[in-house]
User: Fold this.
Amino acid sequence: MPKKNEIKKVLVIGSGPIVIGQAAEFDYAGTQACRSLKEEGVEVVLLNSNPATIMTDSNIADHVYIEPLTAEVIEQLILKEKPDSVLPTLGGQAALNLAMELHDNGFLREHGVRLIGTTAETIKKAEDRQEFKQTMEKIGEPCAASMVVESIEEGLLFAGKIGYPVVLRPAYTLGGSGGGIAYNQTQMIEILGNGLRLSRVGQVLVERCIAGWKEIEYEVMRDGRGNCITVCNMENLDPVGVHTGDSIVVAPSQTLGDKEYQMLRSAALNIISELQITGGCNVQFALNPESFEYCVIEVNPRVSRSSALASKATGYPIAKVAAKIALGYTLDEIRNAVTEKTCACFEPMLDYCVVKIPRLPFDKFISAKHTLTTQMKATGEVMSICDNFEGALMKALRSLEQHVDSLMSYDYSCLMKEELLEKLQKVDDRRLWKIAEAIRRGVSYEAIHELTKIDIWFIDKIARLVKMEQTLKRKPLEEDLLREAKRMEFPDRVIAALAGTEEQAVRDMRRALGITASYKMVDTCAAEFEAKTPYYYSVYGSENEAERTEGKKKVLVLGSGPIRIGQGIEFDFCSVHCTWAFEKEGYETIIINNNPETVSTDFDIADKLYFEPLTPEDVESVADLEKPDAAVVQFGGQTAIKLTEALMKMGVPILGTSAENVDAAEDRKLFDEILSRCKIPRPSGGTVYTAGEAKEVAQKLGYPVLVRPSYVLGGQGMQIAVSDSDVDKFIGIINRTEQDHPILVDKYLQGKEIEVDAVCDGEDILIPGIMEHIERAGIHSGDSVSVYPARSISGQTKRTIEEYTGKLARALHIVGLINIQFIVCGEEVYVIEVNPRSSRTVPYISKVTGIPIVPLAVKVMNGKKLKRLGYTPGLQPEADYFAVKMPVFSFEKIRGAEISLGPEMKSTGECLGLAKSFEEALYKAFLGAGIRLPRNKNMIISVREEDKEEAAEIGRRFLKIGYKIYATKGTARALKEAGVEAEEVNKIEEGSPNLLDLILGHKIDLVIDTPRRGTEHSKDGFLIRRSAVETGVNVLTAIDTAKALIGSLENADQKNLTLVDIAQEIYCENENEML
Amino acid sequence: MKAYLILEDGTVFVGTSIGSGKSVMAEIVFNTSMTGYLEVLTDPSYAGQAVVMTYPLIGNYGVTPDMESERGWAKGYIVRELADTPSNFRCEGAVQEFLRQQDIAGIAGIDTRSLTKRLRDKGIMNGMITTDPSYDLEKVISDLKKYKITDAVGQVTCAGKYVVPAGTLASKDSLRVALLDLGEKRNIIRSLVKRGCEVTVYPAYSPAEEILTDKPDGIMLSNGPGDPKECTGIIREIRKLYAGKIPVFAICLGHQLMALANGARTYKLKYGHRGGNHPVKDMEDGRVYITSQNHGYAVDTQSMAPSVAKEAFVNVNDGTNEGFRYIGKNIFTVQFHPEASPGPMDTGYLFDRFIDMMRGE
Assistant:
């Protein structure tokens, strides 16, 4: 029972689609909080538009609404469900902003609903720049000289007074959207103007620049009685100036003495007490490295990415405790779930070092600037734990899965020393490697420190790693050296390369000398108390604490690593469900993963958690100790699939589809054989290694062709080439990283794209449903709007798809999951891609159809048959609901990124629209994705030649609902010819007034801009699209999406949505018995 | 140079020598603070002990002026890794040099977590740090079993009485505090001076009469090392201070001695409380504070006559006694360290309470 027994039914607001600045950490926090509330007998109503989350499962909350996160929707939901309280502090900034909106407009008071967790007054004091500053002044906590401005003139005046550079922080935005550092007036005008546009309240904070100071964070908890603790402090390796989400972060702080540590800790407690926060809170400080001077940078009165990191770094479950505090418990009344002996009112003590490294998306946005600023760009992160910093850093690097495993992975040896030093001043994602190179060149620590402002302590540690590289190169590989290299977590592969031997030889030598990884426990208390939680990290040269358990069958679940574009939270959903399903089957479960944001790395998901990189060597070390009976790789995305071969070599059996069959699906030749055996057509194509071969194949097939590497995820490197020069360029890009497998060149077919996920038990298949993409083929499936059930293909085509799916699954001997993508041209069905694993669409299709796909897959892997499980094989009857999965992008965060869609995936997240009618589902999906129309009822259309006819039709419909259309010359002519009124506007090079003026003048709601295919994009189009995105204008780059949007606008409005409780209306039938 | 840590139970850890290369026998205790290694090394309460730091990276910010007494008192120092390139704007050198200067024996490069678990499970043990590889294990173990810290307070207390002026805050009505130095940490004095007090420090064996005739406004009993029961002479004098009317505030060993002077019992904890994260509940209002702690002995609450003192603070983790309020007296005592250094400063308000008490508020 809650301590405050008037709390009986709580609405928890989730954070919505994954975007940069708001990622899986809120699924982790929300899930933990919901479970914590349910533990206390509270009825939980959950709202989140993101279907890929675990928190939206029917066993997490009592009522689950996957609906758009808008104030209107929440109001309707409150009227329907009548919760007595709303908990807004676990869904990131998105949830907090919504709660404030409902508080400010009086809705909550009017309906007798209270905010729990933290009051509206507290949120205002912490979030409103002016109030925050006043509060800090009141309690004597220093802030950098700053002023909130509402216009560019005001900003310029203030910056003139305090001097450049200045930091700009827009109020109420995610991950510092639109923020930055301005070094001069020109930059000021640009960044400030942008920030003012992006801020929900039109305010930007202009602040004295304290770049170069140490950035230190404290995670603080406070209960209703005023008890305060700090869970953890963290130090950013990169000084102030880089968003903490993009910084390398260590926990605990390494370069602070007790005086500094306690000074800032006391300040953090003062602040949380003055703000009267009840729950978790994050306080960021800048500390002058030359004195005790400090400033408060920011306070987040809620759980955050940093709190997820702090939870995983210490073992202290912040979200769980925050939820209990919201119910009225005090910290000393809450149990420490890790030790099971002590209470939550203590401060974790670490006896290890934690390193977090951000996962940046520059591999997806090759045109984007790599510079890191106060605007967060990372899509995800990895964390590693070790008893020394060098080891933790090395483990974190290889956890990134970006083809890096040491400080030699990026080569800067060709740079002149001056060039190198110049580059050191710029903060980007590769600075660590440049520092290492500078050390190799003999640049002094002091000189590097001067350029980077990174503390000498860290530079020294990097130097130690460089020294070890040099020693390994120079000296014979003997026992002591090998021990020391392993203590620093050099992987065998790197040791072998440096010592001039084979990886296997290093491994054999290690085995012979008994140099193996030991595992230590994360216990919150530095071994002071015995802990019950089996949460481990590896170290070399220490005693092993992880005991091999015997008795039950044991399964190793391989997680999916950091969140990145193409491999998102969906795979964590699958990993967690698979773990739960194996537990149900009587297995002992072991998870290996390295992502601190996720549910799968919560300490009570699996029987054992190993927080480790997902490389063959690291996995083998765990396997050597645990001797699992089997491993499962189907659920951890490409990360896990890539480990299949290595696991087989280690002698760990793979459950489900065998390694040869995984290979057969990926290997072009084998796959072609299977297809021809099954008589299933596919677009013709060939495999190549060089650009020459590629052009030969392309010319034979005729352009356009699809070029892509095999064994990739999210269409990485996939492009549509329309000419030989395109092919040259694309092959060049692909070959920038070493390819173990050939490159595929296929004929590009423009048809409807269809996708299915299926479960196969080796004999029978079960297809929960067929999904259809709104956009024609050519746009990555993850970036397409996907509709279930498919609407525009015939019954015959559906039967063909069912038949092909069955044939393929059987031919590949699939046991478990398979995902197939088809192209339908007329009645012809072609297979374009087969993934012998779980896919991005599994969570959403499970939720919509109520068929528990992951648990079913686990059951068939254990030899159960679909028929015996009560399912009729084949394509399942269609559900009563339409479900539209809408991709969500974070383009405004990545300066310079091309936003037009193509075969390479670019979206960071997704949301769902669910309704009885297609139009309403679609409308909800657009709404959930943040497309709020109309405001000004002005739009711009600029389309390529082949889209003009359709554009005219779309334009006509927009006119009808009251829009004014501006169009570029060609498009305008086409529209006018079709009798659609449009105002012609100048292209950018034609001078003002032109398109750009319109966009920057805040007159436009929507831009429909479809760029030409191939690499020959006009600079103009790029500029238009970027400007629109950066000013918060909706941009659609595919004509089909535009058509869908007008359809939804014509048929729905926000005031009359039907909200669907999937836990009650869809799920309960089948899911509950499986879970 | 190789170094060996030999425990009473026969366990041997092999590491690298840091600091002095001499062989020492000591009681091995662990401290879980992640910062504040200098404050720990110079805290007189560690006299006769060798400290294991559970945090693996020590010495990162080098030697800074954060000393709690003029010298290092720990007999030995045991760490996982000692930084040899420290970095901090106040850094004056590396910890290695400090250990050498202070002749403190040390060992690095051992699995400190494994050692800590051993101490936790088996209880605090004696141990020897040596660089001599030809030690005779049997003999060392038998010596270790016999090793005992004796007259610890006598080793650490000041030689003679001295006065620390109230400094910049001095005024006509500055409060005068008598501090009985049982092994005081400097920050007790700093905490008082900061609040405008003039502090007179008395050696531990000063007769009570000497303090009482000086008519201080308040008396502080400091922290200190060793088994409280052995301080029979001091306990006798403290009994006299109890009988007087002057307000008394006692910390750690002072707290234990005041309890002993009033007929309560003390006992040795299995592995003590040493670190900066111990939750302590104020029994009056239920508030919990995070405190800095360093003690191996505790007062048995049950043994204190309810008519004499009321339990004022309790450790939330293990329920052990953390403080008393003496009935009918202006006396309160705490087991933890409100002066922090190292550790959280959350209970610094207790000094204000003491000031109020002296002012009769």
